[in-house]
Amino acid sequence: MKLDDHLLLWNQASVKVMDIRHRSMESGEELLAYRLPANAFLYATRGSAQVRLDGVPYDAQRFHLFHGGKGVCLDIAAKQSFEYYMILYKASASLPSRKELMRQAELDDPFRMQYGFAPQYPVFLLDIAERMAKEWIAAGLIDKLHVKSLFYQFVYEVMRQLDQQGIEPIKPDPVTQAVLFMNQHYARPITLESLVEMLDCNPRQFLRWFKRRYETSPIDYLIQLRMTKAKELLLGTDCTLKEIAESVGYPDSYYFSRQFKKNEGVSPTAFKEKALKQEQRLKNPSFLSTSPIVARELQRYSVHVIDNRYQHEREGHLSMRRRTRTSLAVTLLFCFALLLSACSGGTTNPGTGASGTAGQQQNTEATAPASQTSSDKEAPRVIKHAMGETTVNGTPKRVVILTNEGTEALLAVGVKPIGAVQSWVGSPWYNHIKDEMQDVTVVGDELQPNIEMIASLKPDLIIGNKVRQEKIYEQLNQIAPTIFAADLAGDWQINFKLYMEAINKKDEGEKAMADFNKRVADVKAKLGSKAATKVSVVRFSASQVRIYQKQTFSGVLLDQLGIARPPAQDKDSFIEVMTKETIPSMDGDVMFYFVSEQAGKNDAAKVVEEWKNDPLFKNLNVAKANKVIQVDEAIWNSAGGYKAANLLLDELAAYFEVK
Predict the structure, then answer these.
(1) For residues 456 and 472, what is the distance between their CA atoms, to the nearest angstrom?
(2) Looking at residue 170, what DSSP letter applies?
(3) Which among 426, 399, 427 has a CA at the least distance from the CA of 411?
(4) Could you give the CA distance from residue 298 to residue 450 in angstroms, rounded to a whole number?
(5) Within 13 Å, how many C-alpha atoms sit on residue 232's CB side?
(6) Would strands 399-401 and 419-420 be described as parallel, antiparallel, or unpaired?
(7) Is the pLDDT of residue 33 over 90?
(8) Could you tell me which of 536, 555, 547 has the C-alpha nearest to residue 648?
(9) What is the largest CA-CA distance in the chain?
(10) What is the pLDDT of residues 39-98, one digit of tens each?
(11) How distant, in Å, are the alpha carbons of 567, 568, 617, 652 from that of 591?
């Protein structure tokens, strides 16, 4: 673009100064992959550094000036103590009388041009920059108007010196910017809309440019990039499927698996197994691999990557544990021996098929004449569930439960399981249930139940969840009648009803639910105007910071109580992964936050402190009002059942001083 046209557009521009920053960096300090949130001038006033704009290197000395458009990737590596001003602005041109120039401006936007040079007369620019920064801090309306007038003086001086030195600005390349961004931030939520918003360009033009360069769309490019990274992790690490999914940008591991299979033709598990077999054949063709992705021994999964209430979005671990043929044969033989033992002892066969017919027939043959006069409540019942229909005989006495929320459901009606998966937090149970769980056998965790341990308990009913344990349903169903809920949603009451039907405690369950709903109604009625308080819910972990929306465990109860939420959280969705640039979305009248921390570590605590000390966080209303409150993760998120819901209701009532 000709400089005259450049100047003409500046003359007609509508300009808004967004921010003025004065920063210092120590020798060796780096600012890496910072995306400019608006068009920006960067003016170095002391020291030296290497500055990169979208990878283009500049040797920045004192008084060097740089310009980049919104979305440009800025890197600074300080060689000496480096000081600079950054002037962020937004500008748009309106030239109805020159449509051809407007069309040219769309292609060669002068406000997004990249350049760097050493002005011949730097002191005047320094004086203007210092005055703008001083006036900006004053923050009065008259001061802001003065800043805008000073900004025009700054631009005039920059354009004048560019003209004198004959420097041609570089046209920015949105496609290169997008590719650089995706390669650096593929784990973030990225959409076509977010890319064009960041790059401040026309969506149709950007799509055409990208397809011309790469013969694919930006999102398909991103998917291929994520799949490549996922394959590297599958083959080079022992990460679980959920950890891999999260690390490449998929909070929902089930969706990640479907996407992987769509692109690679096989599931992630099959991909790794095939690679392992090929590797073993190269080393020893007769050797059968025994190396699973998840170790065969019972493990505690890292708490910092666990959320119980995210399953509404199907964000969960998949057990990527691969059994050898020998191990599977031993398990099946063990289960078959149990069945033979049960039959030979004259007891009812606990196993049923999906329809429950076999179990029903066994019950008819083994029942004594006296039992034929028992109440209908003890008669065989057909339970419809996520995996089909299963017959359950009477009231089960030996129940194994494979979800945390299910454990709380059983305890709510006085049923103590003989076996249960351990809690996400605690050794092995949450504090609020540990007294009631004395002598209950731990059978692994939700992601990796111990099938041999379950079989050894000789249960007459197993309750699990399709999201968590679908792949081992048939094995469980050979041990005892097995009932699976379809999902793990924020609304725990849905599964609660199924659990009550399965354990033949429908009346007791309805009473427990009625008691809870009455409590909710009572608290809601007493909240009055306090319900208008906007409640923000935030989770910190070592790997992510999230805000929690309405389809989460705490979100559902807040909605039932009619309590307001901040706009970014008042959505019928699950969570949003945060970046520091989106910290304002965390604001509200009060913030309840919990921390997911691995035992014996403080990585997540460090993240909390880092974010709390960020200027954007300190500027939040909740921070200024000292309304940032830490709460128990188990109660607010991971336990996810009847007892936790009552305790959460207690905490909310106490905070709002409802008696």
Answers:
(1) 16
(2) B
(3) 399
(4) 7
(5) 8
(6) parallel
(7) no
(8) 555
(9) 108
(10) 899 999 989 999 988 878 888 888 899 998 888 888 899 988 899 999 999 887 655 445
(11) 14, 13, 12, 12
